[in-house]
Amino acid sequence: MKLAALFLISLVSLGTAELPLDVVTPSGYTKLRSWANCSLYRIEAETTYDYAPLLIHLPGSRYDIGYGYGYLLANEIAENYQSLMKSLLGDKWYDGLLMETVALALDWQWTDYLLDVCGVGEQDGGGVPVLSSQSRLEQRHWSQQAQGLTVHEANLEENEITFGGFPWTLRLRYIMEFSSDLLEGRTLWASTNNTVGFNHMIASAPDAEAYHQGTSSGPVAYALETMYQYTAYFPDNDPREANAMYNDSGTTVHIGFPMKEAVWRTNHGYDPVIREHYEWSQSPSSWSMQRYMFIHDALATYQTEGKPIGYMEAVNITAIAGDKGKDPYICQNNTNGTNVLSVTFEPNDQTLYVAWERSTGVNWRPATCSAYLKLSLRDWFALKPPLNFDVKTVL
Ligand SMILES: *[C@@H]1O[C@H](CO)[C@@H](O)[C@H](O)[C@H]1NC(C)=O
Ligand SMILES: *[C@@H]1O[C@H](CO)[C@@H](O)[C@H](O)[C@H]1NC(C)=O
Ligand SMILES: *[C@@H]1O[C@H](CO)[C@@H](O)[C@H](O)[C@H]1NC(C)=O
Ligand SMILES: *[C@@H]1O[C@H](CO)[C@@H](O)[C@H](O)[C@H]1NC(C)=O
Ligand SMILES: *[C@@H]1O[C@H](CO)[C@@H](O)[C@H](O)[C@H]1NC(C)=O
Ligand SMILES: *[C@@H]1O[C@H](CO)[C@@H](O)[C@H](O)[C@H]1NC(C)=O
């Protein structure tokens, strides 16, 4: 009887292709190329990716980081550019004149436009406002990265935008580099200018530690709903989020369900001003709202079960939210989804779980349905140049 029941269960799971939640620890890293103290590695792991994922290690000044990145990934960057343009323009792309025109336009964009607008200088990767000297970077670089401050970004389509601010990718890097805790991160954020609308987040492992020790009552993370000249800061369990309502064809419905000890966002906001300037739908049936609820429901389920959220549970929540078509709980084995990268980061022990989209064409599958590689960033942050290791290194 027991045997029959087990057999039935395995038949059922074969038919439904649940989320695989396949976490793989690499067996090592093979060095492919290096420049100065920077190196590119192939990650050695048992997976079904068409190509082995790569890891690039970029110690040094901002100049070294930028140069090393371009130098070591030159082939991949060129390949990426070619395949992007081909996907946009088809075989027409290989017409030499078109290639030349696009190259000219891109050069113009950079040299005559973006360089002026963003003011990116050569040596310190950003003539970015209030950016301190390179020597400060060198001094703090290694220790700061390992302190456990983490930052995030998700689209938030707002109608108030500008170029007159801090380019967001550099700004997030800047926050991580020069903040040791949540308050420093928030203060630094407030002293720099927003550009476009985004849901950002700053979360802090040291603040979480103090909260768990009972020496702080939080918050340990803020969701930042932003647009031009405006940022709304949301800790966990925020009343603005709890009270948010939506007029669904004459029926007023609740759309915010914050929880204690959890902060999350997809692609809509809860601050009244942010909501007023939002350009997409805030209906409960919108995809952003649905994904917000998938995350909420997973957290609520673990809470009801009294199950602490360890790495497997965190990867599960990440995987559920990654778009793989209609059903968030199933890998449908088709090309419907749009999820190209799925990442869970544990800032306390500096561990990253990362999955990529797999294959191309009809064989393409969302990231969430592939293996998550478990990478210890602590090991990489701890490595100080010069790096003497050779061809094969196992961390
Ligand atoms: C590599 O790092 C060491 C130690 O920081 C430094 O002395 C050396 O100049 C670096 N090498 C290059 C080529 O940047
Ligand atoms: C930030 O915005 C204000 C108001 O638009 C502007 O005066 C200031 O120059 C901006 N600061 C930077 C560093 O862009
Ligand atoms: C809610 O929406 C309906 C139409 O969908 C509209 O007639 C009504 O005035 C709205 N109510 C409020 C309070 O905006
Ligand atoms: C992932 O979350 C879903 C939804 O809450 C749940 O049904 C499933 O059991 C979870 N899986 C794991 C491994 O926690
Ligand atoms: C997924 O679909 C492919 C065809 O696209 C098929 O070859 C493969 O067997 C399917 N895998 C599963 C687990 O259903
Ligand atoms: C998803 O993919 C299947 C198979 O490729 C297709 O039949 C279906 O129309 C797609 N769309 C949705 C919403 O499921």
Automatic annotation (TrEMBL):
Q: Does the keyword Signal apply?
A: yes
Q: Would you indicate the residue range of the signal peptide?
A: 1-17
Annotated InterPro entries: DCD1A/B-like
The source's domain of life comes to: Eukaryota
Enumerate the UniProt keywords alphabetically. Answer: Signal
PANTHER family named among the record's database cross-references: PEPTIDASE C45 HYDROLASE DOMAIN-CONTAINING PROTEIN, PROTEIN DCD1B
Q: What name appears for this protein in its UniProt entry?
A: Uncharacterized protein
According to its UniProt entry, this protein's organism is Geodia barretti
The organism that produces this protein has a lineage beginning with: Eukaryota, Metazoa, Porifera, Demospongiae, Heteroscleromorpha
